[in-house]
Specification:
Keywords: ATP-binding, Ligase, Nucleotide-binding, Ubl conjugation pathway. The protein has 374 residues and is α/β, with parallel strands linked by helices. The protein is built from 13 helices and 11 strands. It folds into 3 domains: 146 residues, 3-Layer(aba) Sandwich (Rossmann fold), CATH 3.40.50.720; 61 residues, Ubiquitin activating enzymes (Uba3). Chain: B, domain 2 (Arc Repressor Mutant, subunit A); 104 residues, Ubiquitin-like 2 activating enzyme e1b. Chain:  B, domain 3 (Structural Genomics Hypothetical 15.5 Kd Protein In mrcA-pckA Intergenic Region, Chain A, Roll), CATH 3.10.290. α2 packs across α10, α7 crosses α8 and α8 packs across α9.
């Protein structure tokens, strides 16, 4: 348990998920925890954020949560940061062996994901399955983007605001074939008064804390697929290995078929380039094809493109690589200049070499294989 007790852990967010995470981590033996949250406690939080009391309304969530856990769990050090996550530098985030997110803001999740690793957004943004997902998407994404009432904050008690959210949520639900979006549910989501929220937070936070304990102590193998939790009749929890889509992508030897979905692909996805194309041209093709935001490209032996605050040393090298041809060509140069020129025209990619592509919009990295046209 020494490794668990000494490991530095950061909990991002001290709301519904954050309160559960802090409690679970402290009770699991983690004794060196930081928590960051810019928000203050509202009366409506008290039905599910159990570290807070009515006397705490108006105070910092991070500070009150940290004080509660410190006082309740002997030996547990909890440091509070009452600020926006964007105010902390890359050096701050590098201190931690584990970072666990308890955020309900898509923009904040996008930022923290891009700071730490290129990782996807949540179900709400990409694969909604429930009517609540559609309403939450309108609240946290469409309202800020469309600004329907000229700078007004969303007021869950304003019927006009609720009507706008309801209209947009119904449209999104129809897009994904989801039923059940109505006024009552919309108001419940906007006001955070849905009975299932507290129990859902508890289940998700428990799963996250358990995986953190596995990673910190090696007591068990971490989950490598999907966790299925059902409580329709009793409670059942188990790991589910999802089926992969098949057909369409370049196949690896030994596979009968390859997945059409780039995310599920076991093989590599072919990309055609001219022999004189630069890395920037290849990057633009990849961004356009997969609708990426800030991808990283690397081979088995080198980083081709990686722009991240966590690794500033690679930023200039990556920018320099953009203007270099993917395939170096020395055939037309004088032999006298060979030694000098080879430094500038070494191949970034050899023929048929695989390139790993990661980006925050991808659920996992994908592999591409560059084919050079004659």
């Amino acid at each position: 348990m020494t490794a668990v007790q000494q490991m530095r852990v950061l909990v991002v967010g001290a709301g519904g998920l954050g309160c559960e995470l802090l409690k679970n981590l402290a009770m699991s033996g983690f004794q060196n925890i930081d928590v960051i949250d810019m928000d203050t406690i509202d009366l409506s939080n008290l039905n599910r954020q159990f570290l807070f009391r009515e006397s705490d309304v108006g105070k910092s969530k991070a500070e009150v949560a940290a004080d509660f856990v410190r006082n309740r769990v002997t030996g547990c050090k909890v440091t509070a940061h009452n600020c926006r996550i964007e105010e902390k530098s890359a050096l701050f985030y590098r201190q931690f062996a584990l970072v666990i997110c308890g955020l309900d803001s898509i923009s904040a999740r996008r930022w923290i994901n891009s700071m730490l690793v290129n990782f996807p957004l949540c179900t709400i943004a990409h694969t909604p399955r429930l009517p609540e997902h559609c309403i939450e998407y309108v609240k946290v994404v469409q309202w800020p983007e469309e600004d329907p009432f000229s700078g007004c904050s969303l007021d869950a008690d304003d019927p006009v605001h609720v009507d706008w959210v309801l209209m947009k949520a119904i449209a999104r639900a129809q897009l994904y074939g989801i039923r059940g979006v109505d006024r009552r549910l919309t108001q419940g989501v906007l006001k955070r008064i849905i009975p299932a929220v507290a129990s859902t937070n508890a289940v998700i936070a428990a799963s996250c804390a358990l995986e953190a304990l596995k990673l910190a102590s090696n007591i068990s193998k971490p989950i490598d697929n999907y966790l299925n939790f059902t409580d329709i009749e009793g409670v059942y929890c188990g790991v589910v290995r999802m089926e992969k889509d098949v057909s369409g992508v370049e196949r690896k030897p030994g596979y009968e078929e390859a997945p059409e979905c780039a995310t599920c692909a076991s093989g590599s996805i072919p990309i055609s380039c001219n022999i004189a194309d630069t890395l920037k041209i290849l990057l633009d093709k990849i961004v356009l094809k997969f609708q990426l935001k800030n991808p990283t490209l690397e081979t088995a032996t080198k980083k081709l493109y990686l722009v991240s605050q966590l690794i500033p040393d690679l930023e200039q090298q990556s920018l320099d690589n953009l203007e270099k041809p993917i395939k170096g060509n020395l055939l037309n140069f004088d032999l006298i200049c060979f030694v000098i020129l080879v430094l500038f025209f070494v191949d970034l990619l050899s023929s048929e070499e695989e390139v790993l592509v990661a980006d925050e919009v991808l659920s996992k990295p994908i592999m591409i294989r560059v084919h050079f046209d004659d």
